[in-house]
Each structure stands twice: as C-alpha cells, then as structure tokens.
Automatic annotation (TrEMBL):
<dbReference type="InterPro" id="IPR058163">
    <property type="entry name" value="LysR-type_TF_proteobact-type"/>
</dbReference>
<keyword id="KW-0804">Transcription</keyword>
<dbReference type="InterPro" id="IPR036390">
    <property type="entry name" value="WH_DNA-bd_sf"/>
</dbReference>
<keyword id="KW-0805">Transcription regulation</keyword>
<dbReference type="GO" id="GO:0043565">
    <property type="term" value="F:sequence-specific DNA binding"/>
</dbReference>
<comment type="similarity">
    <text>Belongs to the LysR transcriptional regulatory family.</text>
</comment>
<protein>
    <submittedName>
        <fullName>LysR family transcriptional regulator</fullName>
    </submittedName>
</protein>
<feature type="domain" description="HTH lysR-type">
    <location>
        <begin position="1"/>
        <end position="59"/>
    </location>
</feature>
<dbReference type="InterPro" id="IPR000847">
    <property type="entry name" value="LysR_HTH_N"/>
</dbReference>
<dbReference type="GO" id="GO:0003700">
    <property type="term" value="F:DNA-binding transcription factor activity"/>
</dbReference>
<dbReference type="Pfam" id="PF00126">
    <property type="entry name" value="HTH_1"/>
</dbReference>
<dbReference type="InterPro" id="IPR005119">
    <property type="entry name" value="LysR_subst-bd"/>
</dbReference>
<keyword id="KW-0238">DNA-binding</keyword>
<dbReference type="Pfam" id="PF03466">
    <property type="entry name" value="LysR_substrate"/>
</dbReference>
<dbReference type="GO" id="GO:0006351">
    <property type="term" value="P:DNA-templated transcription"/>
</dbReference>
<dbReference type="InterPro" id="IPR036388">
    <property type="entry name" value="WH-like_DNA-bd_sf"/>
</dbReference>
Amino acid sequence: MAYLDNIAVFVRVVELGNLSAAGRDMRISPAVASNRIKELEKHLGVRLFNRTTRQLMPTEHGTVFYSGAKQVLEAITEAEAAVSALSGQPRGTIRVTAPLGLGRRLVASGIPDFHDKYPDIEVRLRLSDHNVDIMKEGIDVAFRLGIIEDSSLRMRGIMECERVLVAAPKYLQARGEPMEPQELIGKKHDCLMLRYSGAREYVWTLQTPTGPQKFEVHGPYDTDDGDVLTGWALSGRGIINKPRFEVEPFIRDQRLKVILSSTPPTPVQFAAVYPHKKLQDPKVRLLLDFMAERCQRLINDLLAGK
C-alpha cells in the first residue's frame, strides 16, 4: 500500500502543481508528500520533477510515468467500486465542488447528513466560483449553475432555476428604474458582473418578445464571488443578475426589487456533472440521488419563503 500511496501523491502533485496543494488535498503535510515523491524517485531510479520556487513540473520521465500511474489508480478505483456494488456497502472518498453561494446554501449543509447515512463514505468539499477543471483536479462531482458544454463530462439535471434582475430601492431612486432592457446600456446603469477566468457571463441574455437577446452591459467593478455581488446590490451599488432562490429573502423584505420583470434573464440550469466513468461508482450515485432530492427541496422552500 505504501507504494500505491506514493503513486497517488505523485499523481496529485502533477495535477495540482505543488506539494502544498497536493498535501492539503490528501490530508498530509508537505514534508510527508515530499518524502513520498523522493521514495518513488528512488524506487524508479529517475527524477520525476523539475523543481522551481513556485511549482513542480514533471520531467520527461515524470510525464510518461504519470500517464500509466493515472490509469493504475483509475483501475483500482473502478475495482473497488465494483466490489462495493456487490457488497452493498459503498466506501471511500468523493471529491465534490460547488459555487460558493450555492455550495454554502444547499450543498455544504447536506454533507454531514449524507455522512450520517453512509458513514463509510468521506466527502471532501471544495467551494469556488472559479471554473474548476474537473478532470485535471480529480473531482468526482461538480454542482454547477449554467451551461455545461464539456462533452467529456456527463450531466444530471437537478432543476431549471428562474433568474431575475434586482437592485436596491436606494439605487433605483438615485439612478431611475429601467423600463426597457435597452435602458441598461443607454442610461449606463451599473450592472455588476460575476467574472473569473473562463467565465461566460460577459453579457446578459434577456427574454424579449422577439426571443432571447444579448445585452453587453457594463459596470464599474466585478467580482469572482457571487455573494459579494449580492452585498454590493444590497448596499445600493448597482443591478445584479441572480438565480431567484439566492435573492428571494431580500426581495421578500423589500431590500431588493425585481426590475424588468416582463423581460427577465433566461433561466439557468442547476446540474451535477461528473466524468463518464464515475456513474459506475455506487457512492457517486448515492451522493447524486441524495443531493438532487435535497437541493430541489431546499430551493423550493427558499422560493416559498420557508
């Protein structure tokens, strides 16, 4: 097992680029991760990484070994999943990612309940509004809001979510409430955007009488954290485009007001995506079933004001 552990550390270092990140991911110290790499290099008789001050880059030998090592670990995972399916006792670790706001409201609170139900399954949850590379970073399940275009992934739709444009009464009093979508641009409204590397929401697509139409809106600042956007809107700094369930409590207490309700944004798909092979893993199926039912229920409760 020690040799397999060394291989697993090596694979994560290649994928994450440094010992510290790999150590955090595998719950070991950087020193332990470093020692495992050294043991592997000693066993193979070659250097696997070129070391720089910030990143470890695989050597030619390391690149070749990574390809085979990855296949070995995947084969072991598949074999363990097959045994779990036969025994009816799923066990192991699931790596999960979700956007910050959605993850906090819907996913994170369900992890302890899931573990209570399936105590032999560990869950490692990573929350980020960045577009996480599922394949590169070894993610088993990613919960996402938006269009899923990666053909290397499978998708399980959870529900279609209504989106709304909202702003604080303070902002609308100061700048005027837009009555037509064109006024967002013509009157230079402050439209606050969620932006990060790989983000696609650089325009707002609204449902107009002639069909969906894209509007290249602008604002004085943007962020990669959806909850920061909501905070800015609440403080009267501009207009935001959000799933209704995320801002429904603020709409109900009149801290935010829905605008352009006759030409709302197009709905957004809430879904779980995962690599093709992962659905064969019983523990992944269990998590998908558990979270799909839970998230649907919580979203409906939020929209109903419960």
